[in-house]
Amino acid sequence: MQKFLTFSALLVLTAALPQRNRGGGRTQQTAQQKAAQVPQGISQAQDGSMILDDTVTVNGLPLRFKISAPAAQFLPASGVPGAAATSSDGTLGVNVLLHGDGGQSFFDMPNQNVQANTMGVALLAPNAKLFWGGGQGLQRTDGVAHSQAVNDFIQNELPQRVAMNKSNVVFTGVSGGSLMLSGFFIPAQMQNYPNSAVELNCGGMPPQVDFQNAATVLPQTRIHYQSTQSELESLQGSIPQAVAAYEQLAADAGLNTAQISQLQTVDNTPEGGHCAFDGQGFVSGVQTMLTSYSNVMQGGNGVVQGLGAPSTGTVTKGVVGNENLQFVAARKREVERDAMIQMRWAQDVVEEPDFDVLICDRASCE
């Protein structure tokens, strides 16, 4: 009997590993398939909140999500122990995070702690490479569909699981997630989120679709662009373009320069590389910005604790007069290609040689 159990276990483990094809190579699993190996369920956040990790189909797309909130704020149907909410109407706002290419920030969930009476939600891109908006680089070919799915999740699915203040929904983008927010979500969907805020970390581009109700949206939407001096080459061009485009849209909506600079701010003073706002690395840099989210986006003093030198820590500089961001020499394309994709989470479920293949932003890795 013991031999049978051992043999069965080996079969299961073997089936889970990348399989060699007849030519001697390996059949590579996609980032999405690897993500599916990371268990879902219920866990505890750093501040004692409960994290619900689950998947729902929205508009035909599989949206994996994480909701982090005090247990009592969940609805019983969520399955969270201690859920006690009797209505979808609650007092906590929501900070929705869209990760960068590869999904790193979804698994880290740097917005998991309740901050300024705001719970955290993270969504995983619903495609094989875990790229928000699909495509690659600045070409986000599925931006329209993904933006609609994010909106429909917030409007229809989130209230079924947790009590929330539907009038207080704010957003965070990281790298590719920032491209999707600035290029597609803000112009198409922000009309559904009055008095909102969007923090665009290490990414941004001008609207790629027609702006809906710009005259109403822009006077009540707070936008902050955060980058570094050693940003990736493509983003050194697209972030300033986004700054200028949204500034012009606000002017066209009737805002004066003082109003624009109060609502739209920008900073790239840290010396770090892509998303390394603390001067150390991607993960710690993104966490640094999210830890001080309320200071930057929700009426705080604009100071980010732990920002890398030579920054003073104050990042809320108005965009008017600061559109022409100064960067250091651009990275080589080979370095940039690997730097934009962050999948360190995958090392727990992917063998090292397979992980190297996954770090690629092309249709197929070479």
Tell me what the structure shows.
The structure is a single chain. The chain has 366 residues and is α/β, with parallel strands linked by helices. It has a single domain, classed as Rossmann fold (3-Layer(aba) Sandwich). Helices cover 31% and strands 17% of the residues. The protein has 12 helices and 12 strands. A 10-stranded mixed β-sheet has the order 3-4-5-7-6-8-9-10-11-12, sandwiched between helices. Strands 1-2 form a two-stranded antiparallel ribbon. The longest helix has 20 residues. The N terminus and C terminus are likely disordered.
Shape: globular
Oligomer: single chain
User: What summary fits the major beta sheet?
Assistant: 10 strands, mixed
CATH class: Alpha Beta
Number of domains: 1
The overall strand count is 12
Distance between the termini: 46 Å
CATH topology: Rossmann fold
Radius of gyration from CA coordinates:
21 Å
The CATH H-level superfamily is Alpha/Beta hydrolase fold, catalytic domain
Judged by helices, strands and strand pairing, the structural class is alpha/beta
Query: Strand arrangement, largest sheet?
Result: 3-4-5-7-6-8-9-10-11-12
Number of helices: 12
Mean pLDDT equals 88
Are there runs of 5+ residues with pLDDT below 50, and where? 1-24, 350-366
Element string (H = helix, E = strand) = HEEHEEEEHEHEHEHEHHEHHEHH
How big a fraction of the residues is strand? 15-25%
